[in-house]
Amino acid sequence: MFKKILGTGMTRVMNLLIGFTTMMLGTKILGPAEWGIGFTVLTDVTFLLVGVEFLAGSGLVYFTPRKKLSTLMAVSYAWIGMVMLLYILLFMGLSHFPTTFDHIVPRGYEGITLLLTLVYSFHNFNLNVFLGKEKVGTYNWVFLLQIFVQVCSMMLFIFVFDIRDAHAFVYSLLCGYITAFSVGFILMIRMVGHDGYDPFFLTAKEMLRYGYVIQLSNLVTTLNRRMSIYLLRQHCTKESVGVYGAATQIGEGVKVFGTSISMVQFSKLSNMDDQDEIVKLTIKFLKITVVLTFLALLAVACLPVSFFEWLFTEEFSQVKEIILLMSPGVLFLSAQMIFAHYFSGTGVPKYNLYGSLVGLAVTVPCTFIMIPLWGIVGAAISFSCTYTAIMLYQWFKFRKITGVKAKELLLTKEDWIWCKAEFLAIFAKK
Predict the structure, then answer these.
(1) Domain spans of the chain, in order of start
(2) From the CA atom positions of the chain, what is the Rg in Å?
């Protein structure tokens, strides 16, 4: 199990390093304004994916061990086609209100935004199938291929084709998505059996019943994370969006431990039935995640402002201040991810939705008050307030369901022994 976590963690670290390279290219060569536009397009794609993932998202991890892959593929592909058609019609309707539409999707990027959403939808289907089959290594390699192609193609667009605006970043995303989808499809299609189909509409109904709660939660979570971007575009400059986007990506990069561990946790829990073992495993994962994330945040806090000015440009000198203000939120977000995957992996994702709604109840007043007053500083404070509230709600719900007491979250000698044994097992198998 630790081997999967280590492999996923190394992949995420590579993603982090490549992401820093991409940000350096974007901030130094494209500038904060164009980087802000590219980050907004990526945010738009994240929002649009929520609709797609009602039937073709993380719920597949839960259903892949329980349903025939051929049926899951048919249902998901049909759903992706329907949703993308609705998005095209929505964009056509919004184009009649250009002032409002420009605040949501940068002008000139409407078509590429839809195309990115379409390609990533199919790519994301493959990734979720790999997790559902506990093919974590395959998931990691395909994901790594995606980000490697992204950074290479971005350098190609900038230095060979001399594209010096946000299109360089956006086109690189498309190249990464297409390449990763193509390779992932070849690997995934081999898993499709020839033992018939499950009932199409019955399967779709079950997936929708499970998936709609997860995706409503994801929609609210996306609003919690990205509402600040749209308010910053309205109340501040494009450069402010670029600076906040850079700080956000660094902050989210720090939660690499939570992302890696929770991903393996979700895959593992979806294939387990022993509730006592599920709870024990969740608590162990929670402790590891919080400790590692705290250490990473401490390391970032020790970096001088001059480092960030060197990494990007002097226009990004405020990045460290924003990261420090976001740090409590990043720590609580990492813990919240473990609770969220516990609820999803045990078939009760509704508590993730309720937690996200608690967060939204904090996000709305905080962002609408703080951003007009303090700009990106207000956005960072709002981020921390939101994830503090979500984590507290999910902890209280987790405690109520499992009976776990707060003192059980403290590190013990047994935890260190368990970690040591798991790490030694990695090398013993080599």
Answers:
(1) 2-428
(2) 21
* C-alpha angle 260-397-67 in degrees, rounded to nearest 5: 55
**Nearest Cα residue to 52 out of 207, 265, 260:** 207
User: What does residue 106 show for φ and ψ, rounded to 5 degrees?
Assistant: -55, 140
For residue range 286-312, list pLDDT tens digits in order: 888 888 889 889 988 888 888 888 877
**Of 101, 380, 50, 361, nearest in space to 228 by CA:** 380
Q: Looking at residue 430, what is its pLDDT?
A: 46
CA distance 226 to 46: 9
pLDDT in tens, 199-222: 888 888 888 777 677 767 777 877
| Residue 223 to residue 372: CA distance in whole angstroms | 18
**Tokens representing 410?**
């403290």
Instruction: Tell me what the mean pLDDT of segment 314-342 comes to.
Output: 88
For the beta carbon of residue 200, count every other beta carbon within 10 angstroms: 12
Contact 24, 276 (CB under 8 A): no
Q: Is the dihedral of CA 310, 228, 56, 134 positive or negative?
A: positive
Helical spans, DSSP H, in 375-406: 376-402
Secondary structure of 26-87 in the HEC alphabet? HHHHHHHHHHHHHHHHHHHHHHHHHHHHHHHCCHHHHHCCCCCHHHHHHHHHHHHHHHHHHH
- Chain-centroid distance of CA 157 in Å reads 26
The reported pTM is 0.69
> Is the distance from CB of 348 to CB of 276 less than 8 angstroms?
no
- Is the predicted pLDDT of residue 417 greater than 80, yes or no? no
DSSP secondary structure of 122-186: HHHHHHHHHHHTT-HHHHHHHHHHHHHHHHHHHHIIIIIS---SHHHHHHHHHHHHHHHHHHHHH
Q: Do the Cβ atoms of 133 and 64 come closer than 8 Å?
A: yes
Q: Which amino acid is at 87?
A: Y
Residue 58's nearest CA partner among 343, 354, 394 is 343
